[in-house]
Design brief:
mainly beta, Methylamine Dehydrogenase, Chain H, 6-stranded antiparallel β-sheet, 3 helices, binds fe (ii) ion
């Protein structure tokens, strides 16, 4: 029997716009926010947790305190963590990241961040709701419009982190971690110049490079990629729109006149070193990985043919056209000839790509995504399936969860003593609608179709959201 301690129950008034049958998609089902912060122990385990998994699995997710936001991307960040050790699940807990936005529920972000006297932005104003990573001995909750936020292993907020004052702008939610040097590579994008700044952070956590990169306009740059020798920027046709910003929504839209380009820069290089390659127009929220093969820099990512032409909502239809969805794609940029080649690896939509983190920047055999299909209503939503792609030819294996169950982004954790690159575990939280509860599923990545090795059940909803990390004790 689980023991639930309520650590902080919200007394903020609920906004009725997030309730009832007219509530927007991003506030319903698995995405409906929870009201309180809890710690739960004595968790029910089915199967057996591999004893070598010792650490914490954490998901970051938007969870507006008022119960309402205009857009999926802008709710207050809430972390959902589970600690595993010695084959046991010690606890589950959920905690808001304490930010100025948390302190001012429902307040307008621009009003909080912008100083009208000096026309400068307070980069501590963050939802801190997108990713959670570990680097240089710190656990950082990330959101691309602001500074990172440091939290403890128990998910309590330490505060905004600007690398001892060296960071003077937003920092991406998708930094890359070099398997060889231990560096954290990142960037920030902004709506005023400089539109793009590249950052390199040493293994010890010191910000050692900040380089402005010239791009024609203020595009939305959610992710980038890094190979062993290059950092790769995606300058794509989703651009900032001041009018939309003043209205309070997601201030970006598709622009047919903005060229789609990837910029490949030596990892320690500068603006003049970037080589830009034109690509077919597209938008890419997430890359899977990048590596080098001879003169080619190869990038894998989930490519959409376009994004946000008429609306910036993510789900605009209950029956999306599969051809509009993001699908796994390969770009090859030849550094000798300047040639570009592209190929789509799967016709079906797929998102939240991950690879074994210890192979980031190097050629990997496999990558993992949330896939389309296996939904209770027969729709083509990306909801009930995890995919394993063999990147050489796009061969796909899947794990279908019981109909209606919704996994989130899966993290690959290598098995101790493993010899093949897929020897390891896929970990994800899964929501089950019949009970409105959730569980962590631990899959054997070498046998996708098999039942989970273990399930750790949490007697309440772990809200669906964005990105996750497994942070082993050793870090
Ligand atoms: Fe993301």
């Amino acid at each position: 029997m689980s023991i639930i301690e309520v650590d902080n129950a919200s007394n903020i008034e609920v906004d009725p716009r997030g309730q009832g049958p007219d509530a927007p998609w991003h506030l319903t089902g698995s995405r409906a926010p929870v009201r309180d912060e809890v710690t739960i122990t004595e968790l029910e385990v089915k199967g057996s947790i591999p004893p070598e998994l010792s650490g914490r699995y954490i998901r970051n997710t938007p969870n507006p305190q008022t119960g309402y936001t205009e857009h999926w991307f802008i709710g207050d960040g809430m972390l959902h963590g589970m600690e595993l050790a010695d084959g046991k699940a010690n606890w589950y807990r959920n905690r808001y990241v304490r930010t100025p936005m948390f302190d001012n529920p429902g307040a307008d972000r621009l009003t909080l961040a912008l100083d009208p006297e000096t026309f400068t932005f307070d980069h501590k104003v963050s939802a801190a709701n997108t990713h959670i990573v570990s680097h240089g001995g710190k656990i950082l909750a990330l959101e691309e419009g602001s500074y990172p936020y440091e939290v403890t292993p128990e998910l309590d907020t330490v505060g905004a982190h600007n690398f001892d004052g060296k960071l003077d702008g937003p920092f991406t939610a998708h930094p890359k971690f070099c398997a060889e040097t231990g560096e954290m590579l990142g960037f920030g994008y902004a709506q005023v110049e400089p539109y793009l700044t590249y950052y390199r952070v040493s293994a010890a956590g010191e910000l050692v490079q900040a380089t402005n990169i010239t791009v024609p306009g203020p595009t939305m740059m959610h992710d980038f990629a890094a190979s062993r020798n290059y950092s790769i920027f995606m300058d794509l046709p989703v651009v900032f729109d001041m009018e939309m910003a003043m209205q309070g929504g997601m201030p970006f839209h598709w622009d047919d006149d903005y060229a789609a380009r990837f910029g490949v820069m030596p990892r320690n290089g500068g603006d003049a070193d970037v080589r830009w390659f034109d690509v077919d127009p597209c938008f890419v929220f997430h890359t899977m990985n990048a590596h080098e093969e001879g003169d080619d820099v190869v990038v894998y990512g989930c490519r959409s043919p376009e994004m946000w032409r008429n609306t910036s909502q993510i789900a605009v239809s209950d029956a999306p056209d599969p051809g509009d969805g993001p699908a796994l794609h390969e770009w090859r940029f030849n550094m000798a000839t300047g040639a570009v080649s592209e190929r789509q690896l799967d016709d079906d939509a797929s998102e939240f790509p991950r690879i074994p983190e210890h192979l980031q920047g190097f050629q990997t055999d496999y990558g993992y995504t949330i896939g389309m299909g296996n939904t209770a209503d027969g729709s083509d939503a990306m909801a009930g399936r995890l995919c394993k792609y063999r990147l050489s030819d796009g061969d796909r294996q899947v794990h279908d969860f019981p109909l209606g169950h919704e996994p989130g982004e899966a993290v690959f954790v290598p098995a101790e003593g493993g010899t093949n690159s897929d020897d390891g575990y896929l970990m994800t939280y899964v929501w089950q609608p019949e009970t409105d509860t959730s569980y962590m599923a631990i899959l054997d990545a070498t046998d996708m179709a098999a039942d989970p090795i273990a399930e750790v059940h949490v007697p309440r909803r772990i809200v669906s959201g964005f990105h996750t990390s497994w942070i082993p004790d050793a870090t």
